[in-house]
Write a structure and sequence with these properties.
Helix content is about 70%, strand content about 0%. The chain has helices spanning about 10-35, 45-65, 65-85, 85-100, 105-120, 130-135, 135-145, 160-165, 165-170, 175-190.
């Protein structure tokens, strides 16, 4: 049972939306990286640039009271960029096949841990921290179009720009985006 959102869509469809959104953020970061920096084309940097840009766009649109107007074009843009960049997940699977063919046991053990983390990241969030403000603040912003009252909800003041990024998948009725996004960041970091 999913307590965050009403399960309108099937969980496998939620996973597909999560993959496409992550791919779209990565592709947006790659495009911005090629325009602005033109030198470092690493997936971790591209993912970071895309995340920062989308989070700031959401924050600025929230402050100017245009979030309801801007959220749909941002979502459609990320989905389109994600469809263009779907081949990226095939590249990750080929990379893991090379690691498995390699005889290095340490890389194989690390790959097994990443596979377990992948399976865990597809599950709905269950950690109290995530349910409290990682998902609670974006849901509050979506429902009430305002930040939570700090006098009533103490942990609501702990949110950051990363939680604002979670408005898009929660608006699409998927809740496993943030955990998969963290796994993807961890894979790119290593």
């Amino acid at each position: 049972m999913n307590f965050l959102i009403n399960p309108v869509v099937h969980p496998l469809f939620q996973i597909l939306i999560t993959f496409i959104l992550c791919s779209g953020i990565l592709n947006l970061g790659k495009i911005l990286n090629n325009i602005l920096i033109k030198d470092h084309n690493y997936n971790f940097i591209n993912l970071s640039i895309g995340t920062i840009m989308v989070s700031y766009l959401i924050f600025i649109s929230f402050l100017t009271k245009t979030l309801n107007l801007v959220i749909i074009p941002i979502t459609i843009t990320l989905l389109l960029l994600g469809f263009v960049n779907v081949k990226f997940f095939k590249e990750i699977s080929e990379c893991y096949k090379k690691i498995i063919k390699n005889e290095n046991k340490l890389l194989i053990i690390i790959s097994i841990f990443f596979i377990f983390f992948f399976i865990i990241s597809l599950a709905p969030p269950s950690m109290s921290d995530a349910l409290d403000y990682h998902y609670g603040v974006p849901l509050s912003i979506l429902k009430f179009s305002s930040f939570p009252n700090h006098n009533i909800w103490l942990h609501g003041s702990l949110f950051g720009y990363g939680e604002l990024l979670n408005i898009i998948p929660l608006n699409l009725k998927t809740d496993n985006f943030f955990s998969f996004f963290q796994l993807l960041s961890l894979i790119f970091f290593f």
